[in-house]
Design brief:
Blueprint lengths: L7 E5 L4 H12 L3 E6 L14 E4 L7 H8 L5 E4 L13 H22 L4 E7 L1 H7 L5 H4 L1 H17 L4 E7 L1 E3 L8 H10 L4 E4 L3 E6 H14 L5 E3 L3 E4 H12 L4 E4 L2 H17 L8 H7 L4 E2 L3 H7 L2 H4 L7 H12 L29
Parallel strand pairs: 1-2, 1-4, 2-3, 4-5, 5-6, 6-10, 7-9, 8-12, 9-13
Antiparallel strand pairs: 9-11
Helix pairs in contact: 1-8, 2-3, 3-6, 9-14, 10-11
Length: 363
């Protein structure tokens, strides 16, 4: 706590997408928030002035430097630093992800533990949940990103030991936007399909959530999460076909959404991986197996069961804003030229109601 008796949290990644919304939620709850930013990234008027900002690159900082930054009577730490599964680094991908998600993260968690921080929240991936509950899918065997995320969670819980409770939040598809950032969805999805006549996609589905729901989960995990526990976070279960239709409708895109069988999707995955290989890159997810292991299945679960475990009722939480609004926010940020200054589609992009593709429920 600070001198005034306010609880204090340090957020690694507080200027990024998930950390920014978590920062806003802690402030709303009356906490004092500190974060770390790269020295060469200026923070404009969009970032809350009441947040204490320390400058440094955690991937280059020593244990001693990190411990000094954290040695200020913090009640909690949040680790909201990527990379996520959509990043395609130089090969070998395993080394890249391990270095950032286990090695560098481990130095931070050791420093936090030794600085006397009693609780840490680690943002992870929902792929780990499905790897635990469906070992017959061999997800960590087929996809090095998932294997590293499992290793990360295990190592951080071990580092915390009986001195620092480590709570792991496993996150699904997330939508929304933040100031001064273009969502990664533009590069890894919209641009990839830009020259195609339609969206060809497997017919599985996934749990989704608005980024404000992540902020709720982070705060709830801080105050109610149990050390060593892993919580799959989400809000609604959505089929990919519905997601793509919503995405098209809210952005004025008239491309058709066409489901494809697994074998055909795997061929597309082969060409994606072949392109990366020619560039000397490798994905954390094997795109051929991705189509069979993940995108042709329903990655659904009962997110509200976790809400009860994390005490959402007592906190007044409901899983965040609606997912359709989150997809709208994402598309506004990815394709700003299609929207006016009020965030509405320009007349030339508005699709007549009778031609809208999505006919399902409002999520």
């Amino acid at each position: 706590m600070d001198a005034a008796g306010k609880k204090k949290v340090f957020i690694f990644g507080g200027t990024g997408f998930l950390g920014y919304y978590s920062t806003l939620e802690y402030l709303r709850q009356g906490w004092k928030v500190d974060t770390m930013s790269l020295p060469d990234i200026p923070l404009g008027d969009w970032f809350p002035k009441e947040v204490g900002v320390k400058y440094g690159d955690l991937f280059k900082m020593s244990y001693e430097e990190l411990k000094e930054a954290l040695d200020d009577n913090y009640d909690a730490m949040v680790y909201a630093v990527g990379p996520d599964d959509r990043v395609v680094p130089q090969a070998p991908a395993y080394n890249f992800f391990y270095d950032r998600l286990v090695t560098a993260c481990g130095v931070v968690f050791k420093a936090a533990r030794d600085a006397g921080i009693p609780k840490a929240v680690l943002l992870s991936s929902y792929f780990c949940y499905f790897d635990r509950t469906h070992p017959e899918w061999h997800l960590s065997e087929h996809h090095c990103y998932i294997r590293v995320r499992n290793e990360q969670a295990a190592e951080m819980i071990k580092i915390g030991g009986d001195k620092m409770a480590v709570v792991v939040l496993e996150l699904p598809y997330i939508f929304g936007c933040m100031p001064e950032r273009i969502p990664l969805w533009k590069e890894v999805f919209i641009d990839r399909f830009a020259k195609m006549p339609a969206y060809f996609f497997p017919t599985g589905g996934t749990t989704m959530i608005h980024v404000t729901g992540i902020a709720e989960a982070v705060y709830a995990g801080t105050v109610n999460g149990k050390g060593g526990h892993k919580y799959p976070i989400g809000n609604v279960n959505v089929k990919y076909m519905d997601w793509l239709k919503i995405m098209n409708d809210v952005s004025g895109e008239r491309k058709k959404v066409l489901g494809v069988p697994t074998w055909m999707a795997a061929i597309g995955g082969y060409f994606i991986d072949r392109k990366f290989k020619k560039e000397g890159r490798e994905g954390g997810l094997d795109h051929v197996k991705l189509m069979k292991d993940i995108q042709s299945r329903d990655y659904f679960y009962d997110a509200q069961a976790v809400w009860k475990e994390l005490g959402y009722d007592e906190l007044g939480y409901n899983g965040g804003m609606g997912i359709i609004e989150g997809i709208k926010d994402t598309m506004r940020a990815c394709l700003p030229e299609r929207y006016d200054e009020k965030g509405n589609l320009k007349p030339e992009w508005v699709i007549p109601k009778e031609k809208l593709q999505y006919k399902g429920p409002v999520f």
